[in-house]
Specification:
The chain has 504 residues and is α/β, with parallel strands linked by helices. It has 19 helices and 19 strands.
Length: 504
């Protein structure tokens, strides 16, 4: 397998000072999987123009560690169209030339953190071959669990005073923020969320703060108007393929709901790829650039997410974690063998939480995959799903709410099916093949959905029949079955749901 590496990946790898902690994880996996690391001749030219002569000299001595492509793929009409649509300068043209090698099949994958390259890849229909670092690590971890060096432990709350400030995880904060260590020590009795490896290394850290309408925002331009806000004070996740970023976003959104916040905001420098990735994650989930905050060390960018927008006018990810009752509602079965693996936050009292630590990417992800052969395939983005854990009259229970992000039907091949499901499915490739070939006359389709809410109380099938959600024991759902708004509200009432995530 040939993997083409974007120029910035090489710079971070071969620079005299490692500035991207995830690069080591990436190259470790490339070596263990025996992938051929390729470099484009145009990237070599870019490297030689780098502003830091030390970096140039270092890279020139190590270039032989890579397979420099000897020829370039021919230009095609599709590639020319991409150039005409997107390319404004030499760097854009080089990026498209890298994509051209993937499109022509001369390399198997391209790894890049450049979001514009990913947009181009989507237009070319090759998104399954173009990866961010985190996406590639997720793919590698999912496909080769036996090669993973460590397990990721569950997220936990911890006092600052019990967290090791000397862990190398915090080095980038110390470099970016003068006085970070003093600030950290002053917070010794306050709570942060952390995630560690089983070796004790910190992999993710989150500190959030509730701010009242009286907060002074005079150092932010434009000034933020008075609102109750949740501030993301400190947030960092190391890319390691375990979707920790989404797991921590869920924590942020849950706290915003509990605090009844009007808005969430974060301030951060925009001066490294670490910041670029965090900004990309936030903007994917509805944050937008508001302005700048003046600090002694320079201006920070301010990103906000308004929590009072109408979910019906937004894409599900931008509206997350809110829905309205002006939707369609469906109930769908999920077998016990798969239920808690896919929806670990909806674990039953009879199951052990220790069996569902976040050691698989799909467990941490908000975005998940549900595979179905339902007769009813008429679902749309924004539809609400109620998951029913099968088990009969007394063990069958509704446990979870999700919202449809995307419906993928008409899948043409087994390989395409596997590529669509692989990242966020609970199944490995062999299990996915079995699903695809189970009934050749009724191929499966895929629902990409967002995990939304776990019911605090789980009404059993008997109760669902009594309140009129399901007709009788023989009418338990066998596929996607639409229910009325009134039936949905009965489920909310029976499950004692806190409806603060539902906007009227």
């Amino acid at each position: 397998m040939k993997v083409l590496l974007d120029t910035n990946i090489l710079i971070h790898r071969e620079a005299s000072k490692i500035v991207n902690e995830e690069i080591g994880n990436l190259f470790n996996w490339l070596d263990r999987l025996h992938y051929e690391k390729c470099i484009h001749p145009l990237s070599i030219g870019e490297l030689e123009k780098h502003s830091n002569p030390v970096v140039v000299k270092t890279i020139q001595t190590k270039i032989q560690n890579y397979n420099a492509l000897k020829t370039e793929a021919p230009e095609s009409s599709e590639i020319s169209a991409i150039r005409a649509k997107y390319d404004k300068n030499e760097n854009d043209n080089i990026d498209t030339s890298l994509l051209k090698e993937v499109y022509a099949g001369r390399v198997d994958y391209l790894i890049t953190e450049d979001r514009k390259i990913h947009v181009k890849a989507s237009d070319l229909g090759i998104t399954n071959n173009v990866f961010t670092i985190d996406d590639f690590l997720e793919k590698s971890t999912t496909e080769n669990p036996e090669l993973s060096e460590y397990k990721v432990l569950s997220v936990k709350k911890e006092y600052f005073g019990n967290i090791n400030i000397d862990d190398e995880f915090f080095d980038s904060f110390k470099e970016d923020y003068e006085g970070f260590k003093s600030w950290f020590n002053c917070k010794s009795d306050e709570i942060a969320y952390i995630c560690q490896s089983e070796k004790g290394n910190i992999l993710a850290f989150l500190y959030i703060k509730k701010e009242s309408k009286d907060e002074n925002y005079s150092d932010i331009t434009p000034v933020l108007p008075p609102k109750t806000r949740l501030k993301i004070g400190t947030f960092k996740v190391i890319s390691n393929g375990y979707k920790l970023g989404e797991r921590f976003l869920k924590i942020i959104f849950d706290n915003a709901i509990n605090y009844k916040a009007d808005e969430i905001y974060v301030t951060l420098f925009h001066k490294s790829e670490e910041h670029d990735r965090l900004i990309g994650l936030l903007t994917d989930w509805g944050f937008s650039l508001h302005g700048l905050k003046n600090t002694p060390t320079g201006d920070e960018e301010v990103y906000t997410k308004d929590l009072h927008q109408d979910p019906d006018t937004l894409k599900p990810k931008n509206a997350y974690p809110f829905i309205t009752k002006n939707r369609r509602f469906f109930i769908v079965p999920i077998y016990p063998d798969y239920h808690t693996e896919l929806l670990p936050d909806s674990i039953l009292n009879t199951e052990s939480p220790a069996d569902y630590i976040e050691s698989e990417p799909h467990r941490n992800a908000i975005q998940k995959v549900y595979i179905s052969r339902s007769i009813n395939r008429d679902l749309s983005s924004g539809d609400v799903i109620v998951f029913y854990r099968t088990g009969g009259l007394y063990k069958g229970v509704v446990t979870t709410l999700g919202v449809v992000d995307e419906v993928i039907d008409g899948i043409s091949s087994e390989d395409q099916f596997i590529n669509i499901c692989r990242k966020r499915s609970i199944f490995d490739d062999n299990e996915l093949r079995k699903h695809w070939n189970y009934n050749v006359r009724n191929r499966p389709f895929v629902i990409n959905f967002l995990y939304l809410y776990s019911f605090p109380k789980r009404p059993i099938l008997k109760s669902l029949i009594e309140i009129g959600v399901i007709q009788d024991i023989h009418s338990a759902p066998r596929g996607f079955e639409q229910i009325t708004q009134e039936q949905f509200e009965k489920i909310l009432e029976a499950s004692e749901t806190n409806e603060s995530f539902i906007i009227n």
